[in-house]
Amino acid sequence: MGSEARPELVIVQGPTASGKSDLAVRLAERFGGEVINADSMQVYRRMDIGTAKPSAELRARVPHHLLDVVEPDEPFSAADFRSHASRLIADIQTRGKRAILVGGTGLYIKALTRGLVESPGGDESLRRELEEQAEREGVSALHRRLAEVDPAAAARLHPNDRVRIVRALEVFLLTGRTLTSWHEGHGFSEQPYRCLHLGIEVERALLVRRVEERVDRMIEEGLVAEMEGLLVAGYAPSLKAMSSIGYKEICAYLAGACTLDEAIGLIKRNTRQYAKRQLTWFRKDAEINWVEYPAKFDSICSIVMEFYN
C-alpha cells in the first residue's frame, strides 16, 4: 500500500512525567485533532489518580478516547488496544479530524503501528503451574528459568514483570520455540499508518524532579482514598491492574506492611526505574524524533506541519 493511501498518525511518546498529555492536547488544538490514549493503565475505570490520567481541564479542551474502557478486573491486552485504536483512527479520519496518539506503553504503540506476533494460545493448567512456582519461589526464580531457555527475552523483561515472564515461559514450554524466535519470525513489518513519532526529551535531573513532584501531588489528591475505594469495591490486590506502580505500594501501606512515608518513597523509586525502562525501549526506535517540550513547541509544530503537508 502506498504511503499516500495510509492514514496519518502523529504519536507523542516518552517517559512518564515528561509532559506527553499536555503536548498532545496542544497539537490537537493546533491541527484539528483528537487524542487517543496509549497508556496501558489509563484504560481502567476507577483508577484516575494513580494512573495520572489527563486532567478534566485537558480532557475538556479536545476529545479524548480509550480512557476508562474496562473495569480493573477485566482483561485488556495489546491486541484489544490495537483493535479499539484502529477503529477510532478510521472514525476520526472519516470525520475530517486528525488522530494524535499519546502514551508511554511502547508495546501498545508497536502493536498498532507494526503488528502483533501470532504466538500460540495459552494453556490454563500450565500457566497456573508457573504462577504457583512464582508464589513459592518468587518471580526472580521464573526470570532465572527464562534466562536459561530464552536469554534475549529475559534481558528484555524486568525481573519483576511476572505477567510477561510467565507468558514467555508458557510459549516455550508449549511450542519448544522461544518467544524471541516468534518475534523474529514476525519481523513487525506491518505499516498500516504513515507515522510521525515525537519523543519528549527531558534532562534526567528534571525528569526525576517531575516524577517526585507528581507522586507528592497524587498523595495530596487522594491516592490512598482511591486505593481504599478499590479494595472496598472488591478488587483484589493480586489483580494485574492493582499491582501496578502506585497502587501496590499503597496497598502494602494499608495492609500494615510499611508506613505511608515508606510507601511514597517506594512509589518514587519504582516510578524512576519505570521511566528509565521506558527510555531504554524508546531509544531503540530510530523513527522517533526527539524534541524539547515546552521550550520548543513552535519547532515541534513546524515538524508536524511538514509531516501533514
UniProtKB/TrEMBL annotation:
ATP binds at residues 14-21. Residues 39-42 are annotated as: Interaction with substrate tRNA. Its EC number is 2.5.1.75. GO terms for biological process: tRNA modification. It comes from the Bacteria. GO terms for molecular function: ATP binding; tRNA dimethylallyltransferase activity. The record marks 105, 127 as: Interaction with substrate tRNA. The keyword Magnesium applies. It holds the Pfam family IPPT. Substrate binds at residues 16-21. Its cofactor is Mg(2+). Keywords: ATP-binding, Magnesium, Nucleotide-binding, Transferase, tRNA processing. InterPro entries: Dimethylallyltransferase, IPT, P-loop_NTPase. It catalyses: adenosine(37) in tRNA + dimethylallyl diphosphate = N(6)-dimethylallyladenosine(37) in tRNA + diphosphate. Catalyzes the transfer of a dimethylallyl group onto the adenine at position 37 in tRNAs that read codons beginning with uridine, leading to the formation of N6-(dimethylallyl)adenosine (i(6)A). Belongs to the IPP transferase family. Monomer. This is tRNA dimethylallyltransferase. The gene is miaA.
